Amino acid sequence: MGTEKLAAENQAYVIQPQSIPALPVRGTDKLFPVHRIYCIGRNYAAHTIEMGHDPDKEPPFFFQKNPDNIIVDQDFPYPPETSDVHFEFELVVALAKGGKNITVENALDHIFGYGVGLDMTRRDLQGVAKKMGRPWEVGKAFEHSAPCSALIPVADVGHPHKGGIWFKVNGEVRQKGDLDQMIWKVAEQISILSTFFELKPGDLIMTGTPAGVGAINKGDQLEGMIEGVCSMKLAVI
């Protein structure tokens, strides 16, 4: 009876519902369903400066990627309509609880765990959008633009406030920094976001990238690590 009911309900859809994007949880066979992906911009002072901005004068701002932009344990396909794709390696925060107007003091209680990820960016298309005063989606929210690692629960990793972060292209270190160099800390990011959006279980926050971002090409081998959290490797195809 249950199967017949489900079949009848599915007939109401013009297109069948798609599976929910999810990240694996390290050491288990469980999955973490992803609701939204929030990305903070210019959250390391040196990166803010290299992008031509003043880290002391700007309030925090966020943009979004789509949940189905995520790829896990998969090589990165070089995207179309661009000749200038950049890597931005980041700490990823996964929320187990949501809410509105979350205080900084309570923000960390909402976290399920942490991982690492890449905010891949079609920099040339983003640059055109900036000049024209348009949104950044064409440069930021394209297919496969959010490679991520598996998540590590807070019970296993704690709340990393510091730790070296580095990223290599073909074995050469291109980004190097420390989590304690974030302008807006993780708890502050959660609190600020919750004033603009009602956060939900399954939300991810990509917390910003250190200086050293740059272009990648087909055939490049990419590797990143945050000390005390985890690492990831992938190739550009």
Biggest sheet details: 6 strands, mixed
> What is the straight-line distance between the termini?
47 Å
How many individual helices? 7
What's the rounded overall pLDDT mean?
92
Global morphology: globular
- Provide the gyration radius in Å: 18 Å
Query: Helix/strand-derived class?
Result: alpha+beta
Tell me roughly what share of residues is in helical segments: 10-25%
Query: Could you list the spans in which at least 5 consecutive residues all have pLDDT below 50?
Result: none
Describe the structure.
By secondary structure, the protein is α+β, with helices and mostly antiparallel strands. It is 20% helix and 30% strand. The chain has helices at residues 2-10, 45-50, 104-107, 123-132, 137-140, 154-157, 186-196; strands spanning 22-24, 31-33, 37-40, 62-65, 70-72, 85-87, 89-95, 111-118, 121-122, 146-148, 152-153, 164-169, 172-178, 204-206, 214-215, 221-226, 230-235. The strands form five sheets. Strands 4-3-14-7-8-11 form a six-stranded mixed sheet. A four-stranded antiparallel sheet has the order 13-12-16-17, with no helix packed on it. The longest helix has 11 residues, at 186-196. The chain starts with a helix and ends with a strand.
Topology of helices and strands:
Layout: H1 2-10, E1 22-24, E2 31-33, E3 37-40, H2 45-50, E4 62-65, E5 70-72, E6 85-87, E7 89-95, H3 104-107, E8 111-118, E9 121-122, H4 123-132, H5 137-140, E10 146-148, E11 152-153, H6 154-157, E12 164-169, E13 172-178, H7 186-196, E14 204-206, E15 214-215, E16 221-226, E17 230-235
Parallel strand pairs: 3-14, 5-10
Antiparallel strand pairs: 1-2, 3-4, 6-9, 6-15, 7-8, 7-14, 8-11, 12-13, 12-16, 16-17
